[in-house]
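can u do me a favor
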């Protein structure tokens, strides 16, 4: 079955909330083209249920032999494996690229309301299309479960404080912006306002999905390291950062993934030694900051910066210092 022309990428997660057959309701991508909708109808018309997750969610296989989670009011009610889908009840389809992620998501949806999956899908869509973030499919799993847990905690009178909220807002502004959107969507669905602390927690899940190992616990460590590096540069050069500037935002983005490598102990391979030597000679003052950072990381984390990592750090510090001169 051909992927709908609605912004989804063939072979990747297709969680646009495709319009239900026979309900003529446009999805949040703006709606599939009519020809694609007919093709989708042909594909779904022969689909059978291979697993019932709950009253409102089932699993089937599409025309490309991919497992898809299909949701809709009552679509799984009194249904069994092998039965045909009732097309009139189809609301949204969810197809993840990774089989492992798909199976994990199915287990989550079994236990909790699919409304949290819909919110998670909106978050992923906003992160990818509005903010240009490269988030992993696993975010559907972790965020669906997290949002459900956050709402349940709120109903039990428990609200967690995010002690690094201010750093999350500062260093992950795009992710935090999506987190704020998510809080609004949760409020619209449940009438519960989880607040800015929870927006920061959601942002941390988004950041984690951009990293190699997808661990939220690493986000706190990475954020602490970024904070330390920024403070070293600020104090060493006696500068005040322009946090809205392009150079600063690029610096923070670089530090985010650089810090992840520090904790993963996966350094860049040294491949630009000649350029490095020239840049150091031309920018000796800026390089003193690189040395300060390298010494701190070596002492605190037992990690030695490669030549390439020193070079990239030098380039970003130089940009920030140049910006200060132009003020």
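np, heres the sequence
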């Amino acid at each position: 079955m051909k992927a709908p022309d609605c912004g989804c990428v063939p072979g990747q997660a297709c969680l646009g909330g495709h319009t239900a057959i026979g309900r003529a309701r446009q999805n949040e991508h703006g709606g599939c083209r009519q020809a694609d909708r007919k093709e989708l109808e042909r594909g779904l018309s022969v689909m059978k249920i291979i697993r019932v997750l709950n009253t409102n969610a089932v699993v089937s296989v599409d025309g490309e032999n991919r497992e898809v989670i299909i949701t809709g009011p009552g679509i799984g009610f009194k249904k069994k494996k092998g039965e045909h889908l009732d097309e009139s009840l189809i609301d949204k389809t969810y197809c993840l690229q990774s089989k492992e992620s798909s199976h994990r998501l199915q287990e989550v949806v079994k236990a909790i309301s699919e409304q949290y999956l819909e919110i998670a899908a909106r978050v992923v869509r906003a992160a990818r299309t509005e903010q240009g973030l490269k988030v992993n499919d696993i975010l559907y799993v972790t965020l669906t479960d997290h949002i459900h847990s956050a709402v349940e905690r709120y109903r039990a009178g428990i609200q967690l404080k995010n002690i690094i909220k201010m750093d999350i807002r500062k260093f992950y502004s795009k992710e935090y912006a999506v987190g704020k959107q998510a809080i609004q969507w949760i409020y619209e669905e449940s009438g519960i306002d989880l607040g800015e602390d929870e927006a920061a927690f959601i942002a941390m899940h988004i950041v984690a999905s951009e990293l190699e190992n997808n661990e939220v616990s690493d986000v706190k460590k990475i954020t602490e390291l970024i904070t330390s590096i920024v403070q070293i540069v600020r104090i060493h050069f006696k500068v005040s950062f322009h946090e809205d500037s392009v150079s600063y935002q690029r610096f923070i983005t670089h530090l985010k993934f650089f810090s992840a490598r520090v904790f993963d102990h996966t350094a860049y391979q040294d491949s630009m030694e000649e350029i490095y030597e020239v840049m150091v000679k031309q920018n000796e003052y800026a390089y003193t900051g690189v040395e300060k950072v390298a010494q701190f990381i070596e002492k605190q984390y037992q990690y030695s910066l490669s030549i390439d990592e020193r070079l990239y750090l030098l380039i970003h510090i130089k940009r920030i210092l140049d910006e200060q001169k132009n003020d």
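Strands lie at 51-54, 57-61, 67-71, 92-94. hope that helps!!
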